[in-house]
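explain this:
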Amino acid sequence: MGFPEWPRAFQADARWLADRAQGGFVREVLSHFIYLTDRLVGPVRLTGSAYVLRVTADGE
């Protein structure tokens, strides 16, 4: 899941959205997705997970 531009134009003043150290995309989007999923389908259970860190040329 992603957007062509992040942060989006209307979020440009909220610099913390761009930085991984402050939670960025996950802090802004994932919490809403989890909340909505819980409201629509009820509690879910995590049965496995994986973490993939993509580092760009500028280190972000």
In short: Helices lie at 24-41.
